[in-house]
């Protein structure tokens, strides 16, 4: 096992518990974590790589390019003015790592710093090169539950509703399955040594928070603190915002951890479960979310017909998103490497 140190990066598919994990780890007295600043995405979008430097003359352009990414722009807008001035005026050249750290201010009193980011999984290889002793914590959640949670957030105003059997919902669920696989492939194909990545199961975290947090702390070299399982510490000390535009998405952080959230996938209607299990059957079995005796539900013709119609659009959308996150053309092999066929063998094109 690698002897970990700073920085600490929390990665995972959206709606998989990355924010809950940030709240838990960020409430530790020795940890300072930023909430999805998208700085890495912004720097790469500005045309910079891990081995590049930022000249004094180029820094205004870099900031403008980074600001084109909405979440990164929000992070930059919230920085103290003196941080931005220092970035723009620091003499000489800034390395990629220097630029990243300068724009990620942290509590200097803490020993461990880092960030939670849903895009960070696409940059693990670059980060491992920059920070040889970094800790990468990957939170994994049953994709059936994660996709349902994402649907409710995006399509139903965070209400606990069941997706209706209609084309829009079918496409959302199928697209979510493709995206989940792309995130998993990005992690696996990053060429980061397996002992550099610590996995946490969302279901284990909500069923037995203290036991799982103690295990995680021991693995990454932190002492366990009781405050890490105290809800009152999460908003006050973790760096997680539960106000403003993020309030609805993170409202559960104002509540005690509910172990029944481990069974959230039960809220999926059979047709949606069928899409995900047929698309991701091998991955679900591999990571333990589908038992050997279980299998996808029987096909629903209306679903298959819509999937056949939607197939080209789903693949194009995924390629566009991946190219945007990776900062490369859609034709780049790195994009193709993360895109698998959008339909399982049982659904004819």
Q: What features would you describe in this structure?
A:
It is globular and about 65 Å long. The chain has 16 helices and seven strands. Helix content is 46%, strand content 8%. It has a single domain (8-37, 104-336), classed as P-loop containing nucleotide triphosphate hydrolases (Rossmann fold). It has helices spanning 18-26, 39-45, 59-66, 70-77, 81-89, 96-102, 124-130, 143-155, 167-188, 202-207, 209-220, 231-237, 270-279, 281-287, 301-326, 333-336; strands at 8-11, 31-35, 53-54, 94-95, 112-116, 135-140, 197-201. The strands form two sheets. The chain has a five-stranded parallel β-sheet with strand order 2-5-1-6-7. The protein has a two-stranded antiparallel ribbon with strand order 3-4. The chain has 349 residues and is α/β, with parallel strands linked by helices.
């Amino acid at each position: 096992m690698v002897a970990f140190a700073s920085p600490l990066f929390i990665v995972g598919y959206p709606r998989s518990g990355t924010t809950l994990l940030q709240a838990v780890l960020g409430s530790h007295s020795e940890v300072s974590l930023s909430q999805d600043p998208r700085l890495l995405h912004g720097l790469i979008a500005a045309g910079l790589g891990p081995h590049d430097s930022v000249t004094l003359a180029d820094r205004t352009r870099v900031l403008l390019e980074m600001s084109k990414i909405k979440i990164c722009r929000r992070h930059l807008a919230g920085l103290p003015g003196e941080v931005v001035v220092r970035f723009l005026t620091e003499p000489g050249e800034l390395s990629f790592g220097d630029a990243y750290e300068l724009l990620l201010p942290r509590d200097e009193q803490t020993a461990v710093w880092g960030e939670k980011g849903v895009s960070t999984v696409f940059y693990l290889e670059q980060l491992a090169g920059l920070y040889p002793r970094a800790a990468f914590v990957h939170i994994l959640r049953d994709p059936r539950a994660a996709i349902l949670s994402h649907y409710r957030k995006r399509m139903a105003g965070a209400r606990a509703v069941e997706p209706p059997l209609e084309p829009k919902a079918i496409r959302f669920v199928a697209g979510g399955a493709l995206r989940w696989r792309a995130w998993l492939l990005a992690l696996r194909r990053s060429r980061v040594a397996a002992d550099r990545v610590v996995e946490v199961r969302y279901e284990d975290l909500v069923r037995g928070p203290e036991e799982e947090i103690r295990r995680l702390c021991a693995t990454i070299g932190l002492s366990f603190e009781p405050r890490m399982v105290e809800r009152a510490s999460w908003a006050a000390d973790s760096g997680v915002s539960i106000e403003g535009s993020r309030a609805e998405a993170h409202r559960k952080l104002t509540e005690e951890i509910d172990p029944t959230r481990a069974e959230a996938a039960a809220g999926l209607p059979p047709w949606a479960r069928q899409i995900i299990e047929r698309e991701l059957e091998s991955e679900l079995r591999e990571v333990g979310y589908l038992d050997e005796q279980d299998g996808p539900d029987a096909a629903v013709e209306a679903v298959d017909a819509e999937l056949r119609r939607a197939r080209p659009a789903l693949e194009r959308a995924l390629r566009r998103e991946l190219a945007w996150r990776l900062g490369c053309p859609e034709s780049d092999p790195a994009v193709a490497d993360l895109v698998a066929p959008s339909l399982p063998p049982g659904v004819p094109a």
